[in-house]
Design a protein that fits this description.
heterotrimer; A alpha/beta (347); B mainly alpha (290); C mainly alpha (273); A: 347 residues; alpha/beta; D-Maltodextrin-Binding Protein, domain 2; 2 domains; nine-stranded mixed beta sheet; two-stranded parallel ribbon; 14 helices; B: mainly alpha; MetI-like fold; 13 helices; globular; disordered N terminus
């Protein structure tokens, strides 16, 4: 038995070696990541194309989601299938402390020196965020004639039944952060999220709220009339309006919208060529290009926004951004908050 | 089962050498059992900021917290419910397909399979359009005076059940049909000749003989429903919580892998329990039937 | 037999109601899909139903967007490879377990079906780490192994189900008449279990082509399958190209089914009465 076992092991390892060479790209090329759709168009045209132009080497863009890439790097630490990973704030910190990505500062990525420190702190110094969005109020101009000015007004009037409002569902990755932001809006903190749960209990009880499970879901609800108003990303709302949907309006609430940003980092086992790519990602020109595609703010302070974007980007100081310590608390408590949300709200 | 009876007679070791089982079994041991065992041993080392608690903490929670007991119950209830609905809806279709479709049977099988070849994401999406507050279903129900204002089908348990039945019913129909086809029609004819009514013939002859197909369909549909989350995610919203959905939350949002592991083990236990029960039923019927 | 049943149908009230039931059933089954087909032809930038105007722009978008085309090819190759490997491993085992006089046949059967019981997202996660440790990494071969593991039970279960329903007398008679094992298998058993094999293969392909939770973990530039790309696209962009992608997948599948129907007959999935 043991002999046959050894034979099996041998043949597995043998065939594994035979095939493992097949999937790897040559050292000249790097594999970078992106979300799908317009995101990928922007990453390809603004960053990957620029990288190829400057270095003569290819940057393959693969699409998917951070949870998937983190697992892939974790499974193949020495020879990660991807070289540059896109991730949210808490995922970045988790990846950094879990040893999946290389620590980056201005030495590795010179352009990081020009990035607003807020966006370095947001990921606890694991590289930095390259773009940011704010969670604003989007509404249907045809059915909401008198839109709310602030988040509090929006919540009160949803409870009063002025409209059907759509909120992100708990399956949406950023929800623990949103819970925190509402807690702070109503006088709580990352240590005390009761105020957020209290207000959402009232929202749920009012019967005037529905949930969106993905960012496309919300636009669908607005188009079909399932929702009149809702909480949504500014960049996505503007992109939707630009596609001829003049009926949608965007309100940046006066009581500070939640800000979230996206980071990019080199996976630990990746070649140094990835640094060159990342430096382009944090450069003003390519960032402004990215911003034009996605209607989001970008983080290099030297960026010259286009005319269109000047009126659209909300400055970070007017937003509610979690500090490093807060981000960490959010990540630590996410599971408990999700459980509590499932139990008490279930929106 | 059958082998006990035929064992006395000729084809001593079956048509196919039992060694084939060893090959397939080995494949499963290497690529199914070992990875799962490996997974159970490795869960703690993953990159996460979630609080680290022992897995027993989560088992305790799953079995004592009424909220989670309810979720485990809902998971099973949903799977059983969807499976039963699939049998009720699917059996007549399978019957029609086998007995009455004639030259159209190829076409009907084609229509059954075609939906399975579109992506689950898009099928769910079709339902979202139909079930929207101002969608076709609500428009129709209001036009027909069944409702006086739009009903929020979306993000409710009802739309999740409809979506799951839609995805899974073809599996049930095909499973039942493939067994119905192999039933010897002479048995039914004999029953009729002996004076049994149409209904009685069906209940006493056809239906018992088709139980194996229902069994196959039951296993497939139950287990697929038991593990599904895409449909629940896109159609059920937050209204209906099941174990796979909570596992998905742990993977994508809170990265609490210990909790995910505890929940998947419970889910696995439910599934293995179903598999075992069903095989026992088949065996008993097999002995009686032959 | 065929024309007879059609003729009777017209005369018979119970059968007419059954026909009505079938029509309702297929409205239920095909309705959501027809909606998707309609949406794919819209002129608008957003998903509109009923669609406004008629245009093929979203089909153009599908073919212009490499990620869609590449992943679609991966999906089709993977589905076919999975079905072949699944049948190769599953059919002999199913036959041997069902009537091979092996000890603990029931336990072995439960084991062969056990991948069914594993929540797929857990499977995908576990296999990613395991296959990576073995050196298979994120590759087509890894995907093939993973998909074969999860579709094997469908092949085994369907083939065993059909085989169990067939009387052993045929095989025994052949053996009495002096046929050897291979001859019996080839001339007696195989023709009778063909429907089961075909159904199992189809199930395997369907399970593979629509799989998301496992493919998700093995997705990279060369190995992303269409559902993985579609999910990522859908999550981040709102346009009808997803509907077009679904329709193209459907069209190719329909052509494939049609070819199978021509050479084999879909009908034969279940043996003729």
């Amino acid at each position: 038995m043991s002999r046959s076992k050894r034979w099996i092991q041998g043949s597995i390892v043998g065939s594994a070696m035979l095939f493992s060479g097949a999937g790897t790209v040559s050292a000249e090329e790097i594999t970078v990541t992106s979300f799908g759709g317009i995101w990928e168009t922007a990453i390809t045209n603004c960053f990957a194309a620029e990288y190829e132009k400057r270095t003569g080497r290819k940057a393959n863009v693969t699409i998917g989601s951070p949870a998937q890439w983190m697992s892939q790097i974790e499974a193949n630490p020495d020879n990660p299938p991807i070289d540059v990973i896109v991730s949210t704030q808490s995922q970045t910190v988790a990846a950094g402390e879990g040893g999946l990505i290389s620590r980056a500062g201005p030495n590795e990525i010179p352009n990081l020196a020009d990035v607003d420190p807020l966006f370095i702190d947001a990921v606890d110094g694991w590289g930095g965020c390259f773009d940011f969005g704010s969670f604003v109020i989007a509404y249907n101009k045809d059915t909401v004639k008198n839109p709310p000015k602030s988040l509090k007004e929006f919540m009160d009037r949803t409870i009063a039944g002025d409209w059907v409002a759509s909120f992100p569902s708990i399956t949406y990755a950023i929800m623990p952060d949103i819970i925190w932001s509402f807690a702070e809006l109503y006088g709580g903190s990352a240590d005390n999220v009761d105020p957020a749960f209290e207000i959402f209990k009232k929202i749920k009880a009012s019967g005037n709220a529905i949930a969106w499970a993905s960012v496309t879901d919300f636009l669908n609800q607005m188009s079909t009339g399932d929702a009149d108003i809702g909480m949504y990303w500014d960049g996505r709302a503007y992109s939707f309006i630009d596609k001829g949907n003049d009926w949608m309006g965007v309100i940046t609430p006066t009581d500070k919208a939640y800000m979230s940003c996206v980071a990019m980092n080199k996976s630990k086992g990746a070649p140094d060529a990835a640094w060159e790519y990342l430096n382009i990602v944090f450069e003003p020109g390519p960032q402004s290009c990215f911003s034009d595609y996605l209607n989001y703010g970008v983080t290099n302070q030297k960026v010259q926004y286009s005319e269109k974007m000047k009126n659209r980007v909300t400055w970070p100081k007017d937003l509610r951004a979690p500090s490093t310590a807060t981000s960490r608390k959010i990540a630590e408590n996410a599971a408990d908050w999700i459980e509590r949300w499932n139990k008490e709200i279930g929106l | 089962m059958i082998l006990k009876r035929s064992g006395i007679t000729t084809v001593s070791a079956g048509v196919v050498s039992p060694w084939w089982i060893a090959l397939t079994g080995l494949f499963l041991v290497v690529f199914f059992v070992l990875p799962i065992v490996n997974n159970l041993l490795n869960t703690t080392e993953l990159a996460t900021l979630a609080k680290q608690r022992p897995i027993s903490f989560y088992y305790h929670k799953l079995f004592t917290d009424p909220y989670y007991i309810r979720i485990v119950f809902d998971t099973v209830a949903l799977s059983v419910g969807v499976t039963v609905i699939c049998i009720i809806i699917g059996y007549p279709v399978a019957m029609f397909l086998v007995r009455h479709s004639g030259k159209w049977s190829g076409f009907i099988i084609f229509l059954l399979i075609a939906p399975l070849l579109t992506s689950i994401i898009m099928r769910t999406f079709g339902w979202r359009v139909l079930f929207a507050r101002r969608g076709l279903v609500n428009d129709f129900l209001i036009w027909a005076d069944i409702l006086d204002k739009p009903f929020m089908f979306l993000n409710s348990a009802s739309s999740a059940v409809v979506g799951l039945v839609h995805v899974l019913v073809p599996f049930m129909v095909l499973s039942i049909a493939s067994v119905l086809r192999s039933i010897d029609l002479q048995l039914e004819e004999s029953a009729r000749i002996l004076g049994a009514s149409r209904v009685k013939t069906f209940l006493k002859v056809t239906f018992p003989l088709s139980l194996d197909g229902i069994g196959t369909g039951f296993i497939i549909v139950f287990l697929l429903a038991n593990g599904s989350f895409v449909t629940l995610l896109l159609l059920g919203g937050g209204d209906l919580k099941t174990l796979p959905l909570l596992i998905y939350q742990q993977f994508t949002i809170s990265r609490d892998f210990q909790f995910a592991a505890a929940m998947s083990n419970v889910l696995l236990a439910i599934a293995v329990g179903c598999l075992y029960l069903q095989l026992r039923l088949i065996r008993r019927k097999g002995v009686k039937g032959s | 037999m065929n024309s007879r049943s059609w003729f009777r149908l017209k005369q018979n009230a119970p059968k007419l109601s059954m026909l009505a039931y079938m029509v309702l059933f297929f409205i239920f089954l095909l309705g959501p899909i027809l909606i998707v087909v309609a949406i794919s032809f819209t002129e608008t930038e957003y998903v509109a139903f009923p669609p406004k105007g008629f245009s093929l722009r979203w089909y153009e978008r599908f073919f212009e967007y490499d990620a869609f085309v590449d992943s679609f090819i991966v999906s089709v190759e993977l589905a076919i490879a999975t079905a072949v490997l699944g049948v190769g491993l599953g059919v002999p085992a199913a036959l041997a377990v069902t009537r091979g006089h092996v000890p603990y046949a029931n336990t072995i059967m439960t084991f062969l079906l056990s991948p069914l019981s594993m929540p797929l997202i857990v499977m995908g996660f576990a296999l990613l780490f395991y296959l990576s440790a073995l050196g298979f990494g994120v590759s087509f071969l890894s995907l093939l192994i993973a998909h074969t593991v999860i579709s094997l039970p469908y092949v085994v279960r369907t083939v065993a189900g059909v085989y169990r329903g067939i009387s052993p007398d045929f095989e025994e008679s052949a053996a009495v008449l002096g046929a050897n094992r291979l001859q019996i298998f080839w001339n007696i058993t195989l023709p009778m279990i063909k429907p089961g094999i075909f159904a199992g293969m189809l199930f395997a392909m369907l399970i593979s082509i629509d799989n998301l939770p496992i493919s998700f973990f093995f997705g990279s530039a060369d190995t992303n399958t269409l559902p993985v790309v579609m999910l990522s696209y859908l999550e981040h962009q709102f346009d009808p190209s997803i509907a077009a992608a679904s329709c193209i997948q459907l069209i190719v599948a329909v052509i494939g089914l049609f070819i199978v129907e021509r050479i084999y007959g879909l009908d034969a999935m279940t043996p003729a009465t």
